[in-house]
Amino acid sequence: QVQLVESGGGLVQAGGSLRLSCDASGRTFSMGWFRQAPGKEREFVATISWNGASTRYLDSVKGRFTISKDNAKTTVTLQMNSLEPVDTAVYYCAASRRLNPVPVRRSEYEYWGQGIQVTVSS
């Protein structure tokens, strides 16, 4: 059983930073972050390959968000800088057994965290 444990998140003013982390029970996967704002579909935010060598981002977060893995490749972090009110959403960590290419679609992820709230005030 794979459990994804998310941490971080919270409330921040526009222009501020937050850091999200997700632990994959000591196992190595391709891992990603998705988000869902009220009344909207869940959307892809960022992904990183199982070995940390490849990343992809939603266009609107490029240059502001950075996804990375720890040395053991079992924990993923999303550093979010220059946050904007439009970034407000529940953020979900996800893990995929897909190796190449890095997964970007919801259907490519087998395991999901419970979600964590990120709120950016104007």
Q: In percent, how much strand structure appears in the residues?
A: over 45%
Radius of gyration, in Å, reads 13 Å
Query: How many strands?
Result: 11
Separation of the first and last Cα atoms: 40 Å
- Name the average pLDDT: 94
Q: Can you count the helices?
A: 0
The largest β sheet comes out as: 7 strands, mixed
Detail the poorly predicted runs.
none
Tell me the series of helices and strands, N- to C-terminal.
EEEEEEEEEEE
How would you describe the oligomerization state of the chains in this entry? single chain
What share of the residues lie within helices? under 10%
Structural class assignment: mainly beta
Brief summary of the model shown:
With 122 residues, this protein is mostly beta strands.
Summarize the structure in words.
With 122 residues, this protein is an all-beta fold. It is built from no helices and 11 strands. Strands 2, 4, 5, 6, 9, 10 and 11 form a 7-stranded mixed beta sheet that branches. It has a 4-stranded antiparallel beta sheet with strand order 1-3-8-7, with no helix packed on it. Strand 4 and strand 5 form a beta hairpin. The relative contact order is 0.32. The mean pLDDT is 94.
Looking at this protein, list some descriptive labels.
122 residues, mainly beta, 7-stranded mixed beta sheet, 4-stranded antiparallel beta sheet, globular
Give the topology.
Blueprint: E1 5-8, E2 10-13, E3 18-23, E4 30-36, E5 43-48, E6 55-57, E7 65-69, E8 75-80, E9 89-96, E10 111-112, E11 116-121
Parallel strand pairs: 2-11
Antiparallel strand pairs: 1-3, 3-8, 4-5, 4-9, 5-6, 7-8, 9-10, 9-11
